[in-house]
Amino acid sequence: QVQLVESGGGLVQAGGSLRLSCAASGRTFSRYTMGWFRQAPGKEREFVSAISRSGSRREYADSVKGRFTTSRENAKNTVYLQMNTLKPEDTAVYYCAAAPRLWGTTANEYDYWGQGTQVTVSS
Predict the structure, then answer these.
(1) Cβ neighbours of residue 23 under 8 Å, at least 6 residues apart?
(2) Which of 60, 83, 100, 107 has the largest count of CB atoms under 10 Å?
(3) Residue 56 contacts residue 71 (beta carbons within 8 Å)
(4) Helix, strand, or coil here: 74?
(5) How many CA within 13 A on the CB side of residue 105?
(6) pLDDT tens, residue order, the chain (123 aa)
(7) Which helix (H) or strand (E) holds 65?
(8) Beta partners for 33?
(9) How far apart are CA 48 and CA 50, in angstroms?
(10) What pLDDT, on the 0 to 100 scale, is given for residue 77?
(11) Looking at residue 26, what is its pLDDT?
(12) Distance CA 94, CA 65 (A)
């Protein structure tokens, strides 16, 4: 079992940067694949990124590739999403999620979710 709490969202101008953090409770954080998803009003929740248990494998949605970077510090039970060169279309609620499996890039593969943090990018 794991509880997740996101932080770091806010309002930023286009071209700016934000770093989201996700703090996890529990004793087995390093056993979870960790993902980031986002959802804008009226749209489906979409995959943003995933990072493997050791941090050695990472994958990104085409829309954020080259701009976003995910990382993790297992000793701190924390996963990050560094977002650079932000665009207005990045505006959404961002969710941290944990999957009790070796890999996952779809929402159905994740069992545990944070409450989300709002990211708003102005033009």
Answers:
(1) 4, 5, 7, 77, 78
(2) 83
(3) no
(4) helix
(5) 7
(6) 899 999 999 999 999 999 999 999 988 999 999 999 999 999 999 999 999 999 999 999 999 999 999 999 999 999 999 999 999 999 999 999 999 999 999 999 999 999 999 999 999
(7) none
(8) 99
(9) 7
(10) 97
(11) 82
(12) 16
| Residue 98 contacts residue 27 (beta carbons within 8 Å) | no
Using CA atoms, how far apart are residues 56 and 62, in angstroms rounded to an integer? 19
Give the separation between CA 12 and CA 1, rounded to whole angstroms.
34
Indicate if the alpha-carbon torsion angle 48, 94, 79, 54 is positive or negative. Answer: negative
Up-side HSE of residue 97: CA atoms within 13 Å toward CB?
A: 24
Radius of gyration of the chain (CA): 13
- Residues 6+ away with beta carbon under 8 Å from 107: 37, 45, 47, 97
Q: Which two tokens stand for residue 21?
A: 């953090």
CA dihedral 32, 36, 95, 122 (to 10 degrees): 160
